[in-house]
Amino acid sequence: MGLEILKALGLRQQGLTFVSCPGCGRMDVDLVKLARDVEERLKGIGKTVHVAVMGCEVNGPGEARGADVGVAGGRGIGLIFRQGRVVRKVPEAEIVDALWEEVQAFLADQEALARQAVQDPD
Ligand code: SF4
Prior knowledge:
By secondary structure, the chain is α/β, with parallel strands linked by helices. The protein contains 4 helices and 5 strands; from the N terminus they run H-E-H-E-H-E-E-E-H.
């Protein structure tokens, strides 16, 4: 419970942080289905990662860029961001798989950095 409060206050980020925009008339993808499918895929990941699923190219990139891995929907496509950069542009049907792959790549990078920090603390 205490950890959840700290996470909610932004003071402690552990585990999965999943955000999705509420959706509006600008949506270019089936956001409800996409968010549900992404959340389902990430369920039980047991790692610390922040993932954002946003419905359009207008206001979505800001939040997607701020996450570890994010997507901003476009017309029938998804722009996939990893650590602030666009890394892929995929058809809507491939967004969930692409996000999953980028989450795995992000976690692998984090683990490599952690290993390196242990081996070379300076
Ligand atoms: S990110 Fe785009 S689709 Fe989502 S609520 Fe904002 S403007 Fe609407």
